[in-house]
Amino acid sequence: MNPSRPPAKGSSREDILDAAETVFAARGFEGASMRAIAEAAKVAQALLHYHFKTKEGLFEAMFARRSGAINRIRLARLDVMLARGKISVEDIVEALLRPTIEAGHDPSRGGGRFASLILAVSTAGGDWQKGLVARHYDPMAERFIAALMGALPGLDRAHATWGYLFIVGAALTQMAPTGRADRLSAGEASDEDTDAMLAQAVIFASAGLRALATVPPGDR
Amino acid sequence: MNPSRPPAKGSSREDILDAAETVFAARGFEGASMRAIAEAAKVAQALLHYHFKTKEGLFEAMFARRSGAINRIRLARLDVMLARGKISVEDIVEALLRPTIEAGHDPSRGGGRFASLILAVSTAGGDWQKGLVARHYDPMAERFIAALMGALPGLDRAHATWGYLFIVGAALTQMAPTGRADRLSAGEASDEDTDAMLAQAVIFASAGLRALATVPPGDR
DNA sequence: GATGGTCCTGATCGTATGATCAGTGAAAGC
DNA sequence: GCTTTCACTGATCATACGATCAGGACCATC
Fold it and tell me: Does any CB of chain B come closer than 8 Å to the CB of residue A109?
């Protein structure tokens, strides 16, 4: 019954991570079951525990793999721009947002489902989930916040932080294809068209940042 | 053991909804158990099924109660402003965001935890959860989108929809007290200070909206 | 050709879950 | 005073969960 050739070495581990990504994104951490992931990966359930020990271990491995890939691209883009000298806010925002959208390594759909996962993790109450975000995203976030302050004189640390968080929140919530944009706009906007969404997000966020950078005398 | 006076009639039903709000917000839909909710409400677990039939029924009842209360306030504020004539974008954004923050009816903490819940529901993949958002939020959303278009000539339906969604996404993700703002800003911003956050959000969002309203000739 | 290691499986464990049901006590209606 | 209705409970059900375990297949190395 087993195919005579075992496939490329170590492939089942990646298969599990792929399946975990799909199932976790669709049903959340608690909603996803090890059985469903194993079935999606077409391996025995015990193999998940063999590779990742616990459900949390599997989740973190999957989370680290994908977020690491995205953040490497983000920082690479940022470094290229910084090396070139003067940067526009638009460039920074685009470097921050586009890699997440393009992160879908399955050809069919972009990284929208992973976006919901980040969102769920980053707004969750649990300490473990907070730790995940802190470990895997904070270092990258600090570099982008610094870059924003560099590009916009007048933007202090507090405002740059709020700006960064607003941008990520605004964009992340729109990456999952929920069909809500289509519904509310009577079809004139669509969350399937991630490129159009990103273009609007860049305009929206950049203007918002510039406004935060020019707070009048009495701010708070 | 039972107190001789049964408390104010129908109070245990509200107690259950209160407890459900707390537990669902802290652990998510799948992570929350009927047992934990019953314990928090200090009633027998079977009573939850007596009042709400299923776990989904309980969730929807709790969701409807809280979102209804928030949206009533939102729309009331909007109507007052519309009746007064000219409206600023800032007013609309504030009318949209502040009620959610102030929605905490427990004195200790604001509606931050409920914000995570909306977020989880609105980005979830399940059809049932999409339906929840559509039923309980879309009518209110459409009125605010229309108001935005009224206040900003040049803002068409598609852009107003994106703007609305960006605003809600940006603000909602910052309402849950995760401590992330404090961390990233080295203490100069805090997500405990929801008033400061809201002030920044209004500045950020209003500028973003104005930018979306003044898209040059070649848009997309 | 035995040994050891790695990848992988089927069967099974204890537990926690959502849901159901028969029944209790008290108020309301007649 | 009897019955009906309502709010509520403790006990229990079937199921699905995460995790574990003993072992099998394969492939090196000696």
Answer: no
Assigned domain for B2 exists? no
DSSP, residue by residue, chain A: ---SS--STTHHHHHHHHHHHHHHHHHHHHH--HHHHHHHHTS-HHHHHHHHSSHHHHHHHHHHHHHHHHHHHHHHHHHHHHHTS---HHHHHHHHHHHHHTT--SSSS-THHHHHHHHHHHH---HHHHHHHHHHHHHHHHHHHHHHHHHSTT--HHHHHHHHHHHHHHHHHHHS--SHHHHHTTTSS-TT-HHHHHHHHHHHHHHHHHHHHT--S---
Q: What residues 32-91 of chain B have any CB closer than 8 A to a CB of chain A?
A: none
What is the pLDDT confidence band of residue B73, given thresholds at 50, 70 and 90?
very high
- Chain A residues closer than 8 Å to B136 by CB: none
Q: Could you give the number of structural domains in chain A?
A: 2
Q: Taking CB atoms and an 8 Å limit, are B208 and A204 in contact across chains?
A: yes
User: Does B188 contact chain A (CB < 8 Å)?
Assistant: yes
Consecutive 10-residue averages of pLDDT for chain A (220 residues): 42 95 93 97 98 98 96 98 94 97 64 84 87 97 98 96 98 92 96 94 98 70
- Look at A29 and B31 and tell me if their CB atoms are within 8 Å: yes
Q: Whole-number Å distance, CA B11 to C1' D3?
A: 27
CATH number where A49 lies: 1.10.10.60
Asked if residue A136 and residue A106 are part of one domain, the reply reads yes
Verify that B26 and B100 share a domain, yes or no.
Answer: no
- B170–A172: do the CB atoms touch at under 8 Å? no
Q: Which domain, by its residues, includes B151?
A: 64-213
Q: Tell me, yes or no, whether A96 lies in a domain.
A: yes
